[in-house]
Amino acid sequence: MPLRHETKEITIGKVKIGGNNPVVIQSMTTTSTKNIEQTVAEIKYLESLGCELIRVAVLDIEDAKAIKAIKEQISIPLAADIHYDYRLAIVSIENGADKIRLNPGNLRNIEEVKLVTELCKKKKIPIRIGVNGGSLPKGMALTAENMVLACEEHVKILEELNFHDIVLSLKASNVDLTVKAYLLASERFPYPLHLGVTEAGTEYTGTIKSAIGLGIMLHHGIGNTIRVSLNGDKAMEIKACKEILKNFGLIANVPELICCPTCGRSQYPDIQKAAKEIEFFLETINANIKVAVMGCSVNGPGEAKHADIGIAYGKHDALIFIGETLKKVSFSESIEIFKKKIIKFLEEREINND
C-alpha cells in the first residue's frame, strides 16, 4: 500500500475524509435534480454499488430547493455543484447540502464568495474548490502551474475568512496535465484532494484514462476522494473506482478476480462466458476474497495458487481448487458448483475467524 500523504481531516455529513481516513468513492447524478423521484432512485442505486458521496447539479433555485426532499430519502452525503450564481449555493445550504462545490473560473465576485463562505462556516459545511482546465480565469494559459494558482487565489479568500474546511480538485481532460497539477497542489496545500480526470470519455476510453491518472496519483500517496468520470452507465464509475482502489490495497471487502487471458491452449469453449458469470456473481459479495478462473492446466492451480479459491478448465472437465484440495466437476455443472464453493469458503472462513 502506498504511504498516504497527510492532509487536514474534513467532515462531510457523516463521512470523514483526509487524515487517516480511507479514500471515498464519489459520483454525480445524471438526472435533473428538481426531479426528486428520479434523482433519489439514481442515488440509491449508486449507493448500493458502493458510492459513498454524491454530487448533484444545481442549475436553478428549484434544483437547490429539491435538495431538502432528496436528503430526507438518502443516507450518503450530498454535495451541491454550483456555477455562476452564488445564490444557488445559499439556497442549497439552507436546504441541507453537506458540501458545496465552487468553480473559481466562473464565480469571480469576491463579496459573493464571502457570503457563501460565511454561511458554510456557520453551518459547518465544507467547500470544494473545483478548478477545471476548461474554465480557468480569462487570460490564463492552461498549465498545471496556473491551475494551482487559480486554486490558490480562492483558497486565500477562504483562509482570510478563517475558513479551513476545504477540499480541492484540479481536473483536466489531459492525464499528464491533471497529474502535474495535483502533485503540485499536494505540495502546496494541506487540504484533502478530490481526484479525477474530467471529461475522460466513454466507458472504454474514460476508464483507461482515469485508471492511468488516478493510479499515478494514488501511487504517490495523494487523493482522499475519487471519481471516474464516464460518458456511460454510472454503475461503471463505481465499479472502476473500486477496482482501482482494490489494486492499491485502499479498499476492503471487495473481491478480486484473476483470469487467464485465454489462448489456443484452452480447450473449454466457454471460458470467457464463465469468467464473466463469476465476475457478475462476485459483485454481490462484500468480502476480501481472491478468485481465479483459469482456462487450462498451465494457468491452473500452479499459476493461481495464491488465489483463495479457483477453477481450472481442462480438456474434458474442470478442477475446483482451494489450496491443495481439488474437486473434479463436469463442464455443465462447473459454474453453479463453483459459486456454491465460494459461498461455503466464505462461511467457513468467517466461522474460523470468530
- Low-confidence runs of at least 5 consecutive residues: none
> How much of the polypeptide forms β-strand, as a percent range?
15-25%
How many individual helices? 10
Structural class: alpha/beta
- Main β sheet profile: 8 strands, parallel
- What would the principal axes of the Cα set say about the shape? elongated
Mean pLDDT: 91
Describe the overall structure:
This protein is of the alpha/beta class and 354 residues long. Helices cover 41% and strands 19% of the residues. It is built from ten helices and 15 strands. It has helices spanning 36-49, 61-71, 86-94, 110-123, 144-160, 175-188, 203-219, 234-247, 271-282, 331-353; strands at residues 10-12, 15-17, 24-28, 53-57, 78-82, 99-102, 127-132, 166-171, 194-195, 225-226, 256-259, 290-294, 309-313, 317-322, 325-330. Strands 8-7-6-5-4-3-10-9 form an eight-stranded parallel β-sheet. The relative contact order is 0.09. The model has no long low-confidence stretch (mean pLDDT 91).
Please outline the helices and strands.
Layout: E1 10-12, E2 15-17, E3 24-28, H1 36-49, E4 53-57, H2 61-71, E5 78-82, H3 86-94, E6 99-102, H4 110-123, E7 127-132, H5 144-160, E8 166-171, H6 175-188, E9 194-195, H7 203-219, E10 225-226, H8 234-247, E11 256-259, H9 271-282, E12 290-294, E13 309-313, E14 317-322, E15 325-330, H10 331-353
Parallel strand pairs: 3-4, 3-10, 4-5, 5-6, 6-7, 7-8, 9-10, 11-12, 12-13
Antiparallel strand pairs: 1-2, 13-14, 14-15
